[in-house]
Write a structure and sequence with these properties.
single chain, alpha+beta, Heat Shock Protein 90, 5-stranded antiparallel β-sheet
Length: about 150
């Protein structure tokens, strides 16, 4: 069983690889989504910005949250990226992997979150009890998960 995990860090390119290492037990999709979201903080807010990464598991899903102190800098899913463009694919990857994702804005901060199938549940053939919406929202459609550990 994996307990909930919280990482407090300062945004920097080196921190991205540290986040991936810290999340290796949660699977490649969680690592990739966390990497993309932390990279967005570095790219759009700058180095040295405080970031909180949280991972929890509940009901066959893994919830990843990345919180930063700028509620105005919102993620934008781009429709198309040119073949030669070096950036702009991160949210498209997250959107393709996540069952759903969104943004919660509060005074002085925002949290970009996504929910992915729990790798342990998928490995034993359990389908998650919800479907991928692909839509973003400014508030979560339900209260925060109970933070039960994954199996």
């Amino acid at each position: 069983m994996r307990p909930p995990l919280t990482l407090e860090l300062l945004a920097a390119p080196a921190a991205v690889s540290g986040v991936r290492r810290a999340l290796r037990d949660h699977g490649a999709d969680v690592q990739l989504c966390a990497s993309e979201l932390v990279t967005n903080v570095v790219r759009h807010l700058g180095e040295g910005v405080p970031v909180t990464v949280r991972v929890s598991c509940d009901g066959g899903r893994t919830r990843l949250e990345v919180t930063d102190p700028d509620p105005r800098a919102l993620p934008v899913l781009r429709e198309a990226v040119g073949v030669d463009d070096e950036s702009g694919r991160g949210l498209a990857l997250l959107d393709a992997l996540a069952l759903r994702w969104g943004v919660e804005r509060e005074p002085g901060r925002k949290t970009v979150w996504c929910e992915l199938p729990d790798t342990a549940a998928v490995a034993v053939g359990h389908e998650p009890p919800y479907s991928r919406s692909g839509a973003t929202s400014t508030t979560s459609p339900w209260p925060p998960p109970d933070r039960l550990p994954c199996s």
